[in-house]
Design a protein that fits this description.
This protein is an alpha/beta fold and about 230 residues long. The chain folds into 2 domains: about 150 residues, 3-Layer(aba) Sandwich (Rossmann fold), CATH 3.40.50; about 70 residues, DNA polymerase, domain 1, CATH 1.10.150. Helices cover about 45% and strands about 15% of the residues. It contains 10 helices and 8 strands. The chain has a 6-stranded parallel β-sheet with strand order 5-4-1-6-7-8.
Length: about 230
């Protein structure tokens, strides 16, 4: 007999939050501000979902001649610029809102006895601005949020999901499902041993691009997640 699902972990930007795919542009802008003019939007896009300091180091490694040029100070400065860009963006840009059906889906899953968690590659300062902007800061719809700077290792490692499991006293990852719109979300679900690692096409990547990373399921709206859970 299969165990009941106890926790659904959703990504934020591109999955539960509409952001017009501007995160990559803000990330690229932080590099451009520090003279790295060859960093492309595509490079920035590929790193969506990863902890940003780690993503910065990886991008820099492909854009400098010597590894010694990648200092902690440089990484921190680029990250600070990115954080400022993102806070300004999420605080003031029109059109930032919950994804269609997100709140309804959260409520339906809760009625089924499933806790709702949000995890993100953003740091807590950016995350709190987003949550406040759309009214999710203290909503009973969300049981927990975990950010990449609150664990030892961000996605695709399982640390954030494991932190949520610990909070709710869940010991079996087969009682957990993961939903996100990027490669790193899918791999986080797999690396955590989740029952389902669901890719959603509401973000920056197409179904074809997402299927390369072998999600257990691909959906085109959050509403479909409820159907998958009911089929279990």
């Amino acid at each position: 007999m299969k165990k009941p699902i106890k926790l659904a972990v959703f990504d934020m930007a591109g999955t539960t939050i509409k952001d017009n795919s501007n995160v990559a542009a803000a990330f690229q802008e932080a590099f451009l501000h520090h003279g790295f003019e060859k960093v492309t939007l595509e490079e920035a896009q590929e790193k969506m979902g990863y902890p940003k300091p780690l993503a910065i180091r990886d991008i820099l490694s492909k854009n400098v001649a010597e590894e010694s040029e990648i200092t902690d100070v440089l990484v921190a400065d680029i990250h600070d610029d990115f954080v400022k860009n993102m806070i300004e963006y999420y605080r003031n840009t029109p059109g930032i809102s919950a994804m269609d059906d997100a709140e309804e889906v959260f409520a339906e899953l809760q009625k089924m006895g499933i806790k709702i968690g949000l995890d993100t590659g953003f740091s807590r300062d950016i995350t709190d601005v987003i949550l406040e902007r759309i009214g999710w800061k203290n909503t009973p719809l969300i049981g927990i949020t975990v950010c990449s700077d609150e664990v030892e290792r961000g996605r695709p490692y399982p640390d954030m999901i494991q932190a949520m499991m610990k909070k709710f006293g869940i010991t079996d990852p087969k009682e957990v499902i993961k939903i996100g719109d990027t490669e790193v979300d899918v791999n986080q679900g797999h690396n955590s041993g989740c029952l389902m690692s669901i890719a959603v096409t509401t973000g920056a990547f197409t179904e074809t691009e997402l299927r390369k990373h072998h999600p257990t399921h691909v959906v085109h709206s959050l509403r479909e997640v409820v159907g998958l859970v009911k089929e279990m």
